[in-house]
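[stage:ingest] chain + small molecule (LQESDW3C)
[stage:ingest] validated
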Amino acid sequence: MIDEKGILFILSGPSGVGKGTVRKALFEQDTNLKYSISMTTRTKREGGEQEGVDYFYRSHEQFEQMIHEKKMLEYAKYVGNYYGTPRQYVDEMIEKGHDVFLEIEVQGALQVKENFPQGVFIFLIPPSLEELKNRIVERGTETEDLIINRLKEARNEIEMMDKYDYVVVNDNIEDAVRKVQSIVQSEHCKRSRVAKQYKALLEVDDK
Ligand SMILES: Nc1ncnc2c1ncn2[C@@H]1O[C@H](COP(=O)(O)OP(=O)(O)OP(=O)(O)O)[C@@H](O)[C@H]1O
Ligand SMILES: Nc1nc2c(ncn2[C@@H]2O[C@H](COP(=O)(O)O)[C@@H](O)[C@H]2O)c(=O)[nH]1
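[stage:predict] done
[stage:export] tokens:
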């Protein structure tokens, strides 16, 4: 039987490293990827975040109900809020043969790894911790307290990068996007459907 399921790509990295920036640039070029929109209990950032585009924004009670009903593929509490991946969209897309892209923090990624080891785990790192701090500060979306907490988390997260299949330094956006694209292409070559089809053909030929 030919396996035509899609591949699950997981992009993690500390807050402010540029995951969202790299992902958006990647999606402008790769229209075959499907982005899994996360659910969160954090409030919308000022400046245009939208329900169903950036996140599904829910109350703590609604989020906990989703957990209770086992509707989350993974979830984590990060700096005081829940973040998680609704299971249904990912399952449906993978089954239909589409690649799915998750942009999530480390605790959640490790849960996915346990349940979905065939996923491809990519860790984005900043060129330096100083530059990471500059990026969060310059983005201007977090209070001073939140910046301190996110940078604390960043240290713990970076320690986990060995658990990932690939590490990409986001020094220059175009280079980082190109590297992530190469990873997507390599994984397709590795699991090539063409190779599987050839094997199936050879088996038929042998009979
Ligand atoms: N290679 C880069 N060089 C300089 N600035 C960058 C680079 N990549 C991203 N940035 C900037 O860094 C800031 C943080 O980027 P972004 O919001 O994409 O990070 P993130 O990892 O998605 O953060 P979070 O996890 O908090 O959502 C943004 O202002 C973005 O424009
Ligand atoms: N475990 C999960 N983490 C997620 C998910 N969606 C986003 N995130 C990560 O949370 C932090 C904070 O996000 P922000 O939008 O408040 O800056 C960041 O690292 C995100 O990548 C998710 O579904 N699950």
